[in-house]
Amino acid sequence: MPDSGLAVFEKDSFNAEKYVKELVQDCVGGPELQQTKAKIQSHSDTVSSTLKKHVYENYMQFIETAKEISHLESEMYQLSHILIEQRNLLSTLRDESMLDDQKYIIEDQSIDPNENEEQQNKKAIQLIKESLIGYKGNLDDKVFIHEGGLIELDPNDYRPICRIHLFLFNEILVLAKVKHDKKLEFLTEYDTKKIAVINIKDLDGVNKNAINVFTSDGARIFQCVNSASKLEWIDKFEVAIKFNQLKHKKGPAPQPPTTLNLKNRQQKSVDSEIMMTLSPTASEVAAAVVENLAPDWLASAPEEIQAEIAQRHFEDCLALVQKCEEYLVKDSSFRGAAEIREKIKGLKSTLSSVLMQELSNSQSRSLQAALRSSRRPLKLLVEMEKAREACGILLRVCSSAIRTSQRQARRNNLAVSELFFCDVAQVASEFLRAFSSKVSCTSALIVWCNMELQYFASQLIKHYLTKDTQLEMVARVVEGVRNPCSKLTDIGLDLSYHMEGLLRNTLEQLLEEAKFRLVDSIGRTEDVWQPYNLQTKTNLRSVLKEFDALGLDMKPLVTGDTWINLTQTSVNFCRHFLTTTESCAYLAKYDSLKQDAEQLLKELFLAQHAVKPHPSMSVDLNFIAKNKIYMGDVLLPIAIARFEKISDKKPELLMELQLQLRGPPKPKPRSVYQTDVL
To answer: Of 133, 173, 192, 540, which sits most exposed with the smallest number of CB within 10 A?
Structure first.
């Protein structure tokens, strides 16, 4: 009898079926088998209760472990926060030490402070040119204003990128990279007339003492060594910007710093306290002075405007600028009004530059995305009376987007004409909506449309209307241009005549080449001058169906089961002549091409009509005459009708040809009972 203890069930080689068979064979009678079953059931209950106990213990241990993990996670978060603070602190200390180690180029050199300003400026520029590696520009006619070392930060996460040394002149800002050996390598330069500087508020040491400089390449963020250096850079940038803003006005231009302060570049502030006993008269004077100060909101407006620009709240920024301007128009008698007015004016110019840059940044997008993203800056620029500059930037962005989409369409074998005119319609609609109140900007749209049309026509000729292009393909391209171009009249743009003029010379050349090629192909294959046998009824039905689509019924010419009572050459020419007529009719919609298209058809028809069999051939002359009569009496009238239906113009040359083939009118037959004698 097999062992019924728990040990047997724990073996890896345990087989339940084998165990039951052995158990049944060894047990004697039913009672013994029932006892064994009860014992096994007892083992099962014991194992089940033990399993439940272990599951409960594991569950409790899991809960305790989860609590420990939660506490550990909280501690790790605190530790991570502490490490981040330490990293920021160390980074700040490192940056400040790096900037402290950065010496001024002019300060390291010996310049005699007793020299006049012009001599000092020349020496300073010479020292800067010697210290810059790779600079090829001209600094001789510039006025040096300020220099210093900064850290360039990543605009996304404010991570330090590299050490930068800036040289600020009255007309340009020169950027140089500080190499490991502390030499300066020239990077780039910007026109000070096209830059704007914004003060960035400190955010828990992440971007402490940083300024945002908007350039033609986008925004660049620089970190100064301390707040005093930051304020000094902002002041110097204002000097350079005002220098360019006022130099074309009457009166002297603003002067740069009178001396190059080589020994102390930190802004010095002297705090003084004045104690006085106010008499009643003095109190009144003091009260009058307090009342004559600017309102608090106006005094703090420049800083708020800078913050709004940095946070890209352009609508709120413009509203605050306009509010300040309106207040200054009503009341400018308070102290510091002129200074606030200049600050507001400079910030308004900065906002304009930022909006222009925002408008230009949509250049790499698709046309639809560019138009959507341009609505916000366009609306604000129009309100700021910058519509003329804004419309120029918008149209340049649209040109880039349209030409990019055209290249992709050609690459993917799409309909470029419909896409182009659809894009032009979108641009025109968006332009008219944005500048509805600025009628003077409409001329810019007209000029832009003409320029884009010229470029589109040149690309169309280059890629689709090349030499030896089949006439059918030429007609398809021209018709694909004409239809969407005519739809622009729905929005007030009629470019059809200009488009016709741009394509006229090319289409005339293609028509002339096609005429020479088609006429030259007539008679190259020798005709047997026998009825055309299609071999099978299926082929015959296919040919008849094809000619029905072209407007020519050949059923009266069918003889027998598979014969057409014309030569094979005549049948093929009928097909070819009708398709050529259709292509020429589409081209004849342009009045300038109608004469050339008709001339092609006339010469092609006459060339086939003049074909004769070789003198050595024995042919039925009546059959030859039947082919020619069919061409003149049936084919030519159908071609004339089809030409007139498509082009909506009567083909005078073909109608004259029809009259010539008919000959002079036949006299009416006279009755023997009639006489001309009175």
So the answer is: 133
Q: Which tokens belong to 596?
A: 């050339």
**Averaged pLDDT of the chain:** 81
pLDDT digits (tens, 9 = 90+) for 467-520: 888 999 999 999 999 889 988 888 888 888 889 899 999 999 999 999 999 988
pTM of the model: 0.58
DSSP notation for 321-336: HHHHHHHHHH---STT
Report the alpha-carbon distance of residue 144 to residue 169 in Å, rounded: 4
Q: CA torsion, points 21, 22, 28, 34, in degrees to nearest 10?
A: -70
Supply 210's token pair: 């940083």
235 burial class (0-12, 13-18, 19+ CB within 10 angstroms)?
A: exposed
Residues 465 and 480: their CA atoms lie apart, in Å, by 13
Round to whole Å and give the CA distance between 612 and 372: 68
Give the model's pLDDT for residue 14: 78
pLDDT digits 0-9 by tens, 370-395:
888 888 889 999 988 888 899 999 99
CB 417 within 8 A of CB 469: no
Under a CB-based contact definition with an 8 Å cutoff, are residues 155 and 219 in contact? yes
CA 565 centroid distance within chain: 62
Q: Is 219 exposed, middle or buried (CB count within 10 Å of its CB: 0-12, 13-18, 19+)?
A: middle
Inter-residue contact 426 to 489 (CB < 8 Å): no
- Please report the sign of the dihedral spanned by the C-alpha atoms of residue 332, residue 333, residue 334, residue 340: positive
Tokens of 545: 């169906």
Would you say the C-alpha torsion 162, 167, 168, 171 has a positive or negative sign?
A: negative
Residue 181, classified by CB atoms within 10 Å of its CB into exposed (0-12), middle (13-18) or buried (19+), is exposed
